[in-house]
Specification:
The chain is α+β, with helices and mostly antiparallel strands. It contains eleven helices and 50 strands. Helix content is 14%, strand content 34%. The strands form nine sheets. Strands 2, 3, 8, 9, 10, 11, 13, 14, 16, 17, 20 and 21 form a twelve-stranded antiparallel sheet that branches. Strands 1, 4, 5, 6, 7, 12, 15, 18 and 19 form a nine-stranded antiparallel sheet that branches. Strands 33-32-31-30-26-23-22-34 form an eight-stranded parallel sheet. The N terminus is likely disordered.
């Protein structure tokens, strides 16, 4: 008989709050068990512990410890949440007249946990930090066989420094695990910690408020924690992201490839008005039709005094005399003789090219030393010692609860929009949380949260003030501006607090820091489940230049040869994450522009790291798209190391259920037959993107040449009927489009009769390679215009 699967949870805190507002039914019936078809929650009044059982019958559970925080009998409540609807709760009184709630909603694979707090004293309560929950995880393996994955990466449970927002405990051999995550981030910053006790994994949940003031007679609610068990913890993380999107009613904005001026080896920084116009003209003629959409001007365009990091007069353009310019100080509008009213002509030139104009700024920090703020020192947050809250490079944190500051942010936001900018890169966001800069920050690090005086509105927490600042920008832009956040690695408090309020987020430090080529993919891999659900993960530019920048490759100090240069663009493309470029595009050789053309567009499939729980930086990704009714798969192998490495994966491990597949190696332009496993000996820092199509008893489309995802973006329909393979494809003007079809010739007995367009067009040329190559044919289509065409190949069945 199989052992019953359970999750048992220990609750150790006396005070916890929740941000959800619940309407309880007037009728309460005493009870100790609630169910929702997926989970069963019960309360043991003798041990005063709660047990969450996974009722699918799997042998996986989380064991509880006793707790004395419960002071009464559990009560069953029928509740209605404004987001998740009707649910059933078990509530139990705990210390200080608070109540602990465990809620199950139909169809939700998580238990939702929150607690109320009531201040019945005559004094204001200051809640700095809460340690509400602790539970023991038992996946029927010893702790030494388990791993934890959080913002600090894949680490042994007793080596993990702590994770912001979420923490997954997993058995890498089976992928089953427990996902815990903070669903809300309204007033506090949720963190999760892991440890090992008696060879079992213990998870501790904590909420950091810094300062949460609760006046006499007032009540509060906490952030909501969710916990669930999953046969594949990757799916659990994705469902957690779906719950976040539901909680915050997130509707993703479409994104396109972005050019960021900052890292460019020529015209870097902010560039100049002249270079921006040149870039816009080049992009319109050569790259726009491939998915290029935004030119974003970075730091150094703005005016202001130089005190600590960037200048911060974001309502004015810097006009530096030519004699005073330095290579790092070249800023808009170019040379004074070419001055044409500052930033507006640049935005206009970008828009005239059919592109979106983007601009960099820091919304939540200024320089308190600047003379223009001499009479506005009350705008700044203060440390406990009374000094303005200043951090290295970040400048001085604005007090976002001050109405004058709010008016100023609205003014600058409208100014940038008035110049014509519809894309904001908002840097140094952490300054709005009034916390220290901890760069580079992934796993938990102490940032002395609360080391500041009460804000202008003392009842507003630091996280609440930060969110209100972002809400103000959202309200002012009225949905007309794409809001790109940057970056959570400066201080991870901005991670959860930004959810639902930005469209994309830099999830790691600058490309030029740490391990160069690994920097973005490392964070983008461990946070992959947020991408396309909560926001677009921005791993920083996908560099392809030959010279590169320091730190990309330890041996060459640069991006290096052509194969190495495909790594980052391919990663962004197959994982579907935010695509940025920061090479001076007009000077790139044709073969490097070709990399951009084949990687810039975005697919809408599902991408998962196959070895997410096996490696600190996963090397195998499976991308799947079924939207057209035809399943298309790309398995991509990445050798991030500086030595030749063999990377192997069975199709079953990847998640493919077929017995045998055709394959096509995109960058090698090479067909592959009879694939049952994928194994490649990859040179240092190179990749393979292999399309996989399950074998059938007739010819099938395996790959196309337009994009590295090989048909996911451009093949809209494919059909086989009575010896005819027909398809609908999106063509790019003047781009030679090649379709690779397998299952023909002596291998299968299918012989090509002819290839044609369903509706002939004189502007569209179509042909077929005259030679059948090892059971493959290539159909070549070219159009003078970008358009969608219907084409077909007629086959005859010969006797084998």
């Amino acid at each position: 008989m199989k052992k019953t699967s359970i999750i048992q949870i220990l609750f150790l805190a006396a005070i916890v709050f929740c941000n959800s507002v619940y309407s309880q039914s007037s009728k309460k019936d005493k009870g100790f068990v609630i169910k929702n078809g997926l989970l069963e929650l019960s309360f043991d009044p003798m041990s005063k512990s709660f047990t969450l059982k996974n009722i699918t019958g799997k042998n996986v559970f989380v064991k509880s410890l006793e707790t004395n925080t419960a002071t009464g009998i559990a009560v069953k409540n029928q509740i209605t949440d404004p987001v998740f609807g009707k649910g059933t709760s078990l509530s139990v009184p705990i210390a200080n007249e608070a109540t602990l709630f465990f809620t199950l909603y139909p169809g939700q694979p998580f238990v939702f946990i929150h607690q109320t707090l009531i201040n019945n004293s005559n004094d204001t309560i200051n809640v700095k930090q809460l340690n509400p929950i602790s539970f023991m995880v038992d996946l029927q393996k010893t702790a030494s066989d388990l791993m934890t994955l959080g913002t600090g990466g894949l680490l042994a449970p007793d080596k993990n420094p702590g994770s912001y927002v979420f923490l997954t405990t997993v058995d890498p051999s089976s992928r089953n695990g427990v996902v815990a995550g903070w669903l809300t981030h309204e007033k506090g910053s949720g963190v999760l910690f892991s440890d090992v006790k008696n060879n079992e994994v213990e998870i501790k949940a904590r909420i950091d408020y810094g300062r949460y003031l609760l006046p006499p007679g007032k009540s509060g609610v906490s952030e909501t924690l969710v916990i669930g068990y999953f046969d594949d913890a990757r799916i659990g993380e994705e469902l957690f992201a779906d719950a976040l999107a539901k909680q915050y009613n997130i509707k993703l904005r479409e994104r396109s490839a972005v050019y960021c001026t900052w890292y460019a080896e020529k015209n870097g920084g902010a560039g100049t008005e002249a270079s921006t116009i040149e870039l816009a003209d080049f992009a319109q003629k050569n790259l726009k039709k491939y998915g290029f959409g935004v030119i974003q001007i970075d730091d150094q365009w703005q005016d202001g005094g130089s005190y600590n990091g960037p200048t911060r007069a974001f309502d004015r353009v810097r006009l530096t005399p030519l004699a005073e310019r330095t290579e790092n100080g070249k800023t808009y509008p170019g040379y004074p003789a070419n001055y044409k009213n500052g930033m507006e002509p640049s935005a206009r030139a970008i828009k005239n090219a059919g592109l979106i104009a983007g601009i960099w700024w820091m919304p939540f920090a200024r320089n308190h030393q600047d003379p223009e703020y001499a009479n506005r020192q009350h705008w700044f947050a203060k440390r406990l010692n009374g000094q303005p809250y200043e951090t290295a490079w970040g400048g001085t944190s604005l007090d976002l609860t001050n109405p004058e500051v709010q008016d100023h942010i609205v003014y600058v936001t409208k100014k940038l929009m008035g110049w014509g900018y519809d894309y904001f890169k908002m840097d140094g966001l952490w300054t709005g949380t009034v916390t220290e800069q901890i760069y580079i920050n992934d796993g938990f690090k102490n940032d002395s949260m609360g080391n500041c005086q009460p804000l202008y509105n003392p009842l507003c927490t630091q996280i609440e003030a930060f969110r209100n600042g972002l809400k103000l920008i959202n309200k002012t832009t009225e949905g007309k501006v794409f809001l790109s956040g940057c970056c959570i690695s400066q201080n991870m408090r901005s991670f959860g607090a930004s959810i639902g309020l930005v469209h994309s987020m830099r999830i790691g430090p600058d490309f030029s820091h740490e391990e160069g080529i690994k920097t973005g993919p490392t964070r983008a891999s461990r946070l992959y489940f947020l991408n396309g659900r909560v926001w677009w993960n921005d791993p920083d530019p996908a560099m392809i230049r030959e010279s590169g920048i320091g730190g990309v490759d330890p041996t060459s100090k640069g991006v290096g040869d052509l194969q190495r240069s495909r790594m980052l663009p391919t990663f962004a493309a197959v994982t579907g994450q935010f695509y940025l470029s920061s090479d001076w595009i007009p000077d790139l050789p044709a073969e490097r522009l070709e990399i951009m053309k084949r990687t810039m567009a975005s697919h809408t499939g599902i991408a998962r790291p196959v070895d997410a729980f096996d490696k600190f930086l996963p090397s195998i990704w499976l991308t799947t798209d079924k939207k057209t009714g035809t399943e298309r798969n790309i398995i991509t192998l990445f050798n991030w190391d500086t030595a030749t490495t063999t990377i192997s994966c069975t199709l079953q491990k990847a998640g493919l259920k077929g017995k045998a597949y055709y394959g096509y190696d995109f960058w090698a332009d090479k067909p592959l037959n009879d694939i049952t496993t994928v194994s490649e000996n990859l040179p240092q820092q190179t990749c393979r993107a292999i399309a996989l199509r399950e074998k059938a008893n007739h010819p099938v489309i395996v790959s196309t040449s337009q994009h590295v995802t090989q048909g996911m973006i451009d093949v809209l329909k494919e059909k086989w009927e009575n010896g005819v393979l027909s398809a609908t494809s999106k063509l790019i003007a003047d781009d030679i489009y090649e379709v690779r079809i397998a299952g023909v010739g002596e291998y299968t007995g299918w012989k090509v009769e002819n290839v044609s367009l369903a509706n002939p067009d004189k502007n569209v040329k179509i042909s077929i390679s005259p030679k059948v190559e090892n059971g493959w044919i290539r159909v070549i289509i070219q159009s003078e215009e970008s358009k969608t065409v219907n084409w077909k190949v007629n086959f005859n069945k010969t006797i084998k």
